[in-house]
From TrEMBL:
GO terms for molecular function: magnesium ion binding; oxidoreductase activity, acting on the aldehyde or oxo group of donors, iron-sulfur protein as acceptor; thiamine pyrophosphate binding. It comes from Streptacidiphilus pinicola. InterPro entries: 2-oxoacid:Fd_oxidoreductase, THDP-binding, TPP_enzyme_TPP-bd. The keyword Mitochondrion does not apply. GO terms for biological process: cellular respiration. This is 2-oxoacid:ferredoxin oxidoreductase subunit beta.
Length: 309
């Protein structure tokens, strides 16, 4: 057994002080990710976490891997360049409901559409936490916040529905406080070749405390949750179905993504299709084989260049 396979959660903890509000759900997610990463069997220098802006986006500071705290909403774009140019790396994106679905919405949907080999963890607390409690793209209608004192008028995004509409091959949901379930979903996402989107319900105990309490309370969670497992039956509105994450038709997965009572958790869809980075690098290899190495100087001074006097 090599030293690489002996990595533990401690090896993935950085020397930085973790600075989230006491009781924040991000702590539980961080602990789960640090505990899961040794399972990958990948050297720390071959793992990269790229984040945008927001409370969740402090994540790269706390992991002893390569990482980048980038700019608002642009983490998928930066991670796309990295995953495409370095297909040997395990590239993860950390984002929140505001970062991913507001200013970063366009970058998110195109990463999903292209099927870049990224694992995107979307922390959804249905509020802007870093900027102190404004409503977010996932806040429910009527939500009273500092920026919506009379209640939000917006219809919220449903991240999983959005991802399926963008042709995402892997779509899942889990909860910050359920360590076992969260780890199982992370494991499934890591095994998927292509873009994997994992929505994580995460409690903001300062600005939106209890947003998911009905899904966590031992007295209500069993009836409030629909736990999905591939090949296992589930019942919705009196009809029994067998869950098939590999169904190429996203209709059933989309219908599940629209449910709120009960709320589905687990993998909704896991369909393999060629990833963008592999196809891109295959084109580059073909171009070199057929035409030889490129000439940057010739490209810059080619026939489509003019001199303006």
């Amino acid at each position: 057994m090599t030293d690489l396979l002996k990595l533990t959660a401690k090896d993935f903890k950085s020397d930085q002080e973790v600075r989230w509000c006491p009781g924040c759900g991000d702590y539980a997610i961080l602990a789960a990710v640090q505990g899961f990463l040794p399972e990958l069997g990948i050297a720390r220098e071959n793992i990269v976490f790229v984040s945008g802006i927001g409370c969740s986006s402090r994540f790269p500071y706390y992991l002893n891997t390569y990482g980048m705290h980038s700019i608002h909403g642009r983490a998928p774009a930066i991670a796309t360049g990295l995953a495409s140019s370095r297909p040997d790396l395990s590239v993860w994106v950390i984002t929140g409901d505001g970062d991913a679905l507001s200013i970063g919405g366009n970058h998110l949907i195109h990463a999903l559409r292209r099927n870049v080999n990224l694992k995107i963890l979307l922390f959804n607390n249905r509020i802007y936490g870093l900027t102190k409690g404004q409503y977010s793209p996932t806040s429910e209608p009527g939500k009273i916040t500092k920026s919506t004192p009379m209640g939000s008028l917006d219809e919220p995004f449903r991240p999983l529905s959005l991802a399926l509409g963008a042709e995402a091959g892997f779509v899942a949901r889990t909860i910050d406080s359920d360590r076992k379930h969260l780890t199982s979903v992370l494991r499934a996402a890591a095994e998927h070749q292509g873009t994997a989107l994992v929505e994580i319900y995460q409690n903001c105990n300062i600005f939106n405390d209890g947003a998911f309490e009905v899904l966590k309370d031992p007295e209500t969670r069993d009836s409030a949750l629909l736990r999905l497992e591939h090949g296992q039956p589930y019942t919705v509105n009196g009809e029994e179905h067998v869950h098939d994450v590999t169904d190429p038709d996203p209709t059933r997965a989309f219908a599940l993504s629209r449910l709120s009572e009960p709320t589905p958790i687990g993998v909704l869809r896991a369909v393999e299709r060629p990833s963008y980075d592999r196809q891109l690098n295959a084109q580059l290899e073909q171009a070199v084989t057929e035409r030889g190495e490129g000439d940057l100087g010739a490209l810059l001074s080619g026939s489509d260049t003019w001199m303006v006097r």
